[in-house]
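Try it yourself: sequence plus zinc ion, in.
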Amino acid sequence: MLVARKKQNPSSHMQNWERLPDPAKIMEWACYPCRAMARERVTLRTPSKEAKLLDCTQCGCRTRHRTLSLVEEYGESADGDVQGWTDYCAVQCLGCNTVSFCLETRCSEDADYNDDGEMFLVPKYTLYPPRLQGRKPLEYDGHIPDPIHTVYLEAYTAIVIDLPVLAGIGLRAVLEMICKERGITSGRLIQKIDALEAQRIISPADKDILHNLRFLGNQAAHDAKPHTLQELLAALDVIEHLLKGIYVVPARAKAIPQRPPGR
Ligand SMILES: [Zn+2]
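Structure, out:
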């Protein structure tokens, strides 16, 4: 819980932080819903110069990040037996300079030992904007219709933030939207996929893969069955392959000079 303090000088944001209660003073507050009393304090810290290895949204891989600003929240149980730290950090990729947000949490109940036998608290990172390691979403380039690209991004985000049922439903929705955009509206999804192949929008091999994807989407939509990350990433591969094959590649291929007639 961040401690908000009434602004005394609106022209200086930093002064508001400097006027926070003495870090040595721990505030007591009631935990909802257990109503137990807990204690916490919030402190503006000088960031360490040590870089963190985090996934970068732009580089598409894990890179070194420096911490630009750090607010530390410390809390403990009423009896002092359990302590927890949350660091709110603005971080910057040292490869591409992209700035993002990192929430780092540590708890006295989650410790491990390094190679030298020293105990450390295991950090857990939550990054915003959310991202998948080594995998950037398809960028909007005007070729994929807006509504389809929007739902695709929602499905991608659902995978990133670990909402597997919604991710499965979202990927199936993208497939349904592609069929509708191509004028295939009658019948169930099984018939629509067959129509995509009959109209030579997709290959016979793609049709078989899409039927598997349809099955995955059915389980998510009708049985609320969560799929594994590997299953969802494979399904995302299929959807991205479809979007590129139907919208992106044909549009970009127009830039290639036409072959002369008869050659
Ligand atoms: Zn980067």
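One thing you can check immediately is this: Residues 146-253 form one domain.
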